[in-house]
Design a protein that fits this description.
Layout: H1 5-21, E1 25-29, H2 35-41, E2 50-55, H3 59-66, H4 70-76, H5 81-93, E3 99-105, E4 120-127, E5 130-137, H6 142-161
Parallel strand pairs: 1-2, 1-3
Antiparallel strand pairs: 3-4, 4-5
Length: 162
């Protein structure tokens, strides 16, 4: 996916807000496969405020890299607000970041179910002592779901950093 002007501007805003507070940010991504980290690192100078990105596409990666529990995955599934929150909390523990965003979802075109349809994406945000998550239903094809997920993730960071 090409980083368009809107996503680039959101990434710039994340950088300005993080830099103003001398905070680092990190990402934990599943269905977006590193696109949020890619948008962030498209900004020159992002090494001053971006710590790292985790691409944890498989359940094993979520467990090994982020410490998501097998129980959480078995009870709620990989695409759930509980898993998104656990991913965010795990990335916070495994990084030097002050704020983390995590994303897990069903980008499609296959893989959806009646309970978790294509376009269902869960987001988690974490800072020390604060973990929140939310679920969104995003319309569109795979590229549109992933792009909108990146936009939501970056906008969520801007909101939390300012």
């Amino acid at each position: 996916m090409r980083i368009d002007d809107d996503l680039y501007e959101l990434a710039v805003q994340v950088g300005r807000a993080a830099s103003a507070r001398q905070w680092l940010v990190a990402t934990a991504e599943s269905c977006t496969g590193g696109l949020v980290a890619g948008a962030i690192t498209a900004v020159a100078g992002s090494s001053a405020w971006f710590d790292r990105g985790f691409v944890t596409y498989s359940n094993e990666a979520k467990i090994e890299q982020l410490g998501v529990s097998l129980e959480t995955l078995a009870t709620y599934g990989a695409v759930s607000t509980q898993t998104a929150a656990a991913m965010a909390a795990g990335a916070l523990r495994a990084s030097r970041a002050r704020w983390v965003v995590a994303i897990t979802g069903v980008a499609g075109p296959s893989g959806g179910s009646s309970e978790k349809p294509v376009g269902m994406v869960c987001f988690g945000w974490a800072s020390p002592g604060n973990v929140t998550s939310e679920r969104r239903q995003i319309k569109g094809d795979r590229a549109e779901v992933r792009r909108e997920s990146v936009r939501i993730a970056l906008a969520g960071l801007v909101d939390r950093l300012t």
